[in-house]
Amino acid sequence: MNLLSAKNLSHTFEYELFSDISMDLDEKESIAIIGISGSGKSTLLHILSTLLTPDSGSVSLFAEDVSQMNKKRLAKIKRDSLGLVFQSHYLFKGFSALENLEVAAILSGQDIDNEILKRLNIYEAINQKVTELSGGQQQRVSIARVLTKQPRILFVDEPTGNLDKLTAHEVMEIFFEYIEKNSAGMVLVTHDEELAFKCKKVYRLENKKLVAVK
Ligand SMILES: Nc1ncnc2c1ncn2[C@@H]1O[C@H](COP(=O)(O)OP(=O)(O)OP(=O)(O)O)[C@@H](O)[C@H]1O
Ligand SMILES: [Mg+2]
Q: What keywords would UniProt list here (predicted)?
């Protein structure tokens, strides 16, 4: 089943970032987007995850055109089906790690997966306040929080920037197992080509186009 279909996307800020870009994401599929700094990877991810409206072109989620959805429908899809793991974590700062996960569990009606907490190695820090956690711990808590929602599509922007190599690879394994088990899909943006090539498909954003490199 197709989870996401982007057609003929173009976007310009100060200069034209990309034009006429199309891509599709299917169930159990992972796609990595690499490219030099400033090439527009994060902007493209923002468009695919409905945070930004493209200058032209369309994005369909679960076979529904995003531009045709009313606000309520779009909000529901965002809440229930999209999981965003971005560079800034957006954890609730005054809360503990566990309280952050509990909020996600309550809002989505899902249970916290203790297995994921153990594998992300945040079990022993779970009662600490977010402000008392290291950058890498905060990143791992935010990954656990997004997975707790059980989204159908993961949009992931440099998820392992604060993590050592071993932890980064473990995080990728958790993502891959998650999408397999939940028939979900993932679009990953990263500078790290080694991590990128673990995905099923890899595209490079260069000269305003998406070039398939795997
Ligand atoms: N909201 C915005 N308003 C104006 N310009 C923007 C905005 N967001 C991004 N840009 C510009 O668009 C260009 C691409 O930015 P983007 O963040 O998409 O690049 P990137 O490929 O993700 O880079 P990096 O690898 O450094 O994260 C940059 O020149 C940036 O300054
Ligand atoms: Mg970026």
A: ATP-binding, Nucleotide-binding, Transport
Going by CA atoms, what residue is nearest to atom 18 of ligand 1?
40
Residue from 36, 42, 192, 204 whose mutation best tests the ligand 1 pocket (most atoms within 8 A of CB): 42
Q: What is the pTM of this model?
A: 0.93
54 lines ligand 1 (CB under 6 A): no
Q: Which amino acid is at 63?
A: A
Q: How do the domains of the chain map onto residue ranges?
A: 2-90+152-212
The arrangement of secondary structure in 2-90+152-212, i.e. its CATH architecture, is 3-Layer(aba) Sandwich (3.40)
Separation of 47 CA from ligand 2 center, angstroms?
13
Q: CA-to-CA distance for 45 and 54, rounded, in angstroms?
A: 11
62-116 tens-digit pLDDT: 999 999 999 999 999 999 999 998 866 678 889 999 999 999 999 888 999 998 8
